[in-house]
Protein: Iron-sulfur cluster carrier protein
Organism: Nonomuraea spiralis
Amino acid sequence: MAPTQEQVTAALATVIDPEIRRPITDLDMVKNIEIAPDGAVRVGVYLTVSGCPMKDTITRDVKTAVAKVGGVTDVQVELDVMSTEQRKTLQTKLRGNRGPEKEIPFNQPGSLTRVFAVASGKGGVGKSSVTVNLAAAMASSGLKVGIVDADIYGHSIPRMLGAAERPTKVEDMIMPPSAHDIKVISVGMFKPEGNTPVVWRGPMLDRALHQFLADVYWGDLDVLLLDLPPGTGDIAISVAQRLPSAEILVVTTPQQAAAEVAERAGSIAAQTHQQIAGVIENMSWLPCPHCDERVAVFGEGGGQTVADALTRTLGARVPLLGQVPIDLRLREGGDEGKPLVLTDPDSPAAAELRKIAAGLSKRSSSLKGMQLGLAPNRS
């Protein structure tokens, strides 16, 4: 007996668009369904843009879902491309019918996304590695996570996450690629092939950051992490202006010279009135391969020094969130696009990063900033 239209539609409702992360039936991507008496099914699917990089994935998922319906003997998928009007309708739907204005969703009163700006005083302290592994740990725990690679000159997040796809544009909206269930955007995804440097002045950096926040369709994120460039330059100032509610995570290494520079990076919060979520000490020690004793390759105490100094400067407690030991696999995972917290979650470095991520994922039940929908009683 041939399947019904309702059965095939129900099956298609289980197919999730790999970029937008919503059922294709909700996105009006199903063009038509034809069912022959012998059970052969032909499904027409609209792609958002011509040459959509996810077309093979969508085709495969549609075939797999429909083939499971009882009575189906064959599945054919025909791809078409949305018209300009259809894309505009989709854009409006994704933005919650708010129209085409380019606002930063994380600044809206009802936003529940927690935003962390990961900062360091200098390069080479493993800030990007920490960012990627925190994001991967949070995503593996079931949270919806995104990363903005805000280190425009030194962008490295796509490689560390293994995010090889380029973003797709739907009208003036950008669909970010995903890797390890993490949505990610980086200027490196828009460059021509090769390791071409980005040569931009301050205003262009600010414009790029705004586009990453406002033009990208992030969906309903639980956590957004921004991998900032080292120091307190243009991007750090732009983040404070564009995302005033962002909390700062300071990454340092144990040596005092690095701690002094990291303290300056965190002290920007005194001027921007941002909250510091805490300090993470990376490369804290090296487990001896022979006796398993801790070898303090880069000295000791830098993370606590930064936390204590920022506590005095800001007048509010800044905690040391954790100390991540040196692990060659952490570096190797970054080169291979495979975060250590996923490949070896029980290793000492991964366990510490997962502990930090779990602590940061906890949200208080405060109603600050929430619209309660209350009105005065005028009776």
Notes: The chain is about 35% helix and 20% strand. Residues 5-94 form a domain with the GMP Synthetase; Chain A, domain 3 fold (CATH 3.30.300.130). Residues 364-379 have pLDDT under 50 and may be disordered. The longest strand covers residues 40-47.
